[in-house]
Fold:
Amino acid sequence: YLGMEVSKSLKDGREVLSLTMSAYSKKMVEFMGLDENHHSMRPVECPYKSKMNDFADDEELLSSMERKKFMTGLGMLGWLVSCIRGDLAYTYSMIASSMASPTKLAMRRLVWATRYIKGTSTYGGVTNEDVNTPTSQWRHYSDSDQGKDQSPMNKGKSRCGQISLLMDSLFISS
Structure:
C-alpha cells in the first residue's frame, strides 16, 4: 500500500516483520497543523457518551475552508485505517458519520484523533513469531457499540468492526 513501511529485523534470534505508516502519520499531523501540539493517549475524547454541551457544536457547520481541511484530514485518517491502523476504525466511523454536513464537533474529534496519531505514529503490525515458520495462526474478533451513541447525528445507529490477526499481527480490519 502507498505509504506503508516494511522492515525485517532480528529479535531474540527470530526474524520478525514490522509494518507501519509513520511517515504518512507525520504527514497527516503536519497537514492538520498539530506538529507543535501535544499528543493524546486515546483516539477519542469520550467514545460512548456525548457531553450535553457538545450538541451545540454539532449544529454549527464548518466554513468552506474548514470543510476542505476536514474532508482531506478525514480521507487521510481513512487511509490509515484501511491500511494498518485498526485501532482507529471506531473513531473513523464516528467522525465520518458527519461527512455530509461536517460540524465544529466533528472537526474537534478529527483533531483529537490526529493528536492520538501523533503519539502513536509508529504503531502498526509486528509479527511475534519467526516469519520463516511454516505454520501460522489466525484469530478473528468483532465488536459493536450496540447503538449506544444517541447523539442527534447518529440517532442510535450501531457501529461495528472486525479484526483479523495472523501470528498476532494485524492483517485485516474494518
Remarks:
- The radius of gyration is 18 Å.
- The chain has a mean pLDDT of 80.
- The first strand starts at residue 5 and ends at 11.
